[in-house]
Amino acid sequence: MKELAKLEEQPLTPAPVAESALVSDEQYERAKKHFELLKRFISEQLTPGEDYGYMVVTDKRTGEKKVISDKPILFKSGAEKLLALLGLAPVWDITEVEDWDKPFFLYKVTCTLVSRSTGRAVAVGHGIASSKEKKYQSDKVDPYDLPNTLLKMAKKRALVDAILQAGAGFFFVWEQEAEDEELPQELIKKFWATVRNLGFSEEEVRSVLEKEYGITSTKQIPLARFQEVLGRFAELSLEKQPKKQGKLMEGQK
């Protein structure tokens, strides 16, 4: 408020504005309705802790957690819901660098959001994922298991970036910096309830986490990747079903 008061006291000299940059009343009202709809959708349809969250740091001395982001951080699941609201479809352009001898893997993804009704490009986002990232520098991580994980990560980063460029950036911030934040206790409980319901034993869960994400504990699952990791277990659960059915049929014979 003080800064605003200072500005009001200063004489204003209008700068020359190009005619094309002027906003009409109609454009103003349309933009206003657009952001009001976005705000309402976020409030009613996005779930805190699943679709978005806040960047939290832990004081190593006291163990106290502090929120350090003014805006919430948009997660992949939230970005996908906003895609549906905005009537947008992602178009992917993927550049792959795969050296199976070193081994080294890098995926560079451009996500262009296109209007489903007009076919026009609305926003562009970029994402990169590499096997050289710190989280994958562990003897427990087999680099040859990383390509699929890295590609998904690069696509997620590009998608979220594009959604922010499409207007959600007024409400959210980029979640890249939050990828090293660990899960709060309530989400750890939800994680275990979900994977057990999918039919995974504790030993199987820890094996997947170590093999695909290079971590040895659910506490190490980054907050920003919570939905991604749960989604991976859902995929693996579907893959297990045909095997179980095959064993049952063999037993019946």
Q: Can I get a quick summary?
A:
This protein has 253 residues and is an alpha+beta fold. Helix content is 44%, strand content 17%. The strands form 3 sheets. Strands 5-6-7 form a 3-stranded antiparallel β-sheet. The chain has a two-stranded antiparallel sheet with strand order 1-4. A two-stranded antiparallel ribbon has the order 2-3.
Report on this structure.
- The chain has 253 residues and is α+β, with helices and mostly antiparallel strands.
- It has a domain at 182-240.
- The protein is built from seven helices and seven strands.
- Helix 3 (76-86) crosses helix 4 and helix 5 (185-197) packs parallel to helix 7.
- The longest helix has 27 residues, at 226-252.
